[in-house]
TrEMBL record:
GO cellular component, one term: cytosol
The name this protein goes by in its record: STAR4 protein
Gene Ontology molecular function: any one: cholesterol binding
Domain spans labelled START: 10-207
Entry-linked Gene3D superfamilies: 3.30.530.20
GO biological process entries: cholesterol import; cholesterol transport involved in cholesterol storage; intracellular cholesterol transport
Annotated InterPro entries: StarD4 (IPR042555), START-like_dom_sf (IPR023393), START_lipid-bd_dom (IPR002913)
Gene name of the encoded protein: Stard4
Species the sequence originates in: Menura novaehollandiae (superb lyrebird)
Domain of life of the source: Eukaryota
Length: 207
């Protein structure tokens, strides 16, 4: 088990990585799924042998409230159907923590429940916010779970210029689920999970 990293350089590197993903040209992405709530694209990841996914959709709410529902905190467990538990293990500053969370089985349990330990960081970006994370090799793996690994991931949330009460939410996700899994099952699950994330989030914000 690795010791906890120094949060400041890790947060800075993570933010720079996400901003680089965010500036990737449209021509590099291929559409993976499209719903009324979001479009999901993908491209080969630079971090591992799977894909980097990009999801984007307009959410009818202000930036701060949306990000409060996404980042580690009391809201996330209430609405995210994939997340089954979440504990804040360490808090460095108000916007910076290490969390452990578990996810439900997917695809009729072809993908068994997973556990992740992520460093999470939320910071300003343009007129909005960026909340981002990366997995750490930290803490004992609990029985009955496979430890997954999130390569740099994050959500950019910025108000629409002509309608500030609505926000453009763009996510970048590259999750290595680990364990013996057919890659096609992982790819199907990732696209659907990201599209469902938007519909579930929108329902939660309306309540």
């Amino acid at each position: 088990m690795d010791p906890l990293p120094n949060p400041a350089p890790l947060a800075s590197k993570l933010r720079n990585t996400l901003v680089r993903y965010h500036s990737t040209g449209d021509g590099e992405w291929r559409v993976a799924k499209k719903t009324k709530d979001a479009t999901v694209w993908r491209k080969p990841s630079e971090e591992f042998s799977g894909y980097l996914y990009k999801a984007q959709g307009v959410v009818e709410d202000v930036t701060n409230r949306i990000v409060d529902h996404i980042r580690p905190g009391p809201y996330r467990l209430d609405w995210d159907s994939l997340m089954t538990s979440m504990d804040i293990m360490e808090t460095f500053e108000e916007n910076c923590c290490v969390m452990r969370y578990t996810t439900a089985g997917q695809l009729w349990n072809i993908i068994a429940p997973r556990e992740f330990v992520d460093f999470s960081y939320t910071t300003s970006y343009e007129d909005g916010l960026l909340t981002c994370g990366i997995s750490l090799d930290y803490g004992e793996v609990r029985p009955n779970f496979v430890r997954g690994f999130n390569h740099p991931c994050g959500w950019f949330c910025v108000p629409l210029k002509d309608c500030p009460s609505h926000s453009l939410l763009t996510g970048y996700i590259q999750t290595e689920l680990r364990g013996m899994l057919p890659q096609s099952a992982v790819d199907t699950a990732m696209s659907s999970t990201l599209a469902n994330f938007y519909s579930d989030l929108k329902k939660a914000l309306k309540t």
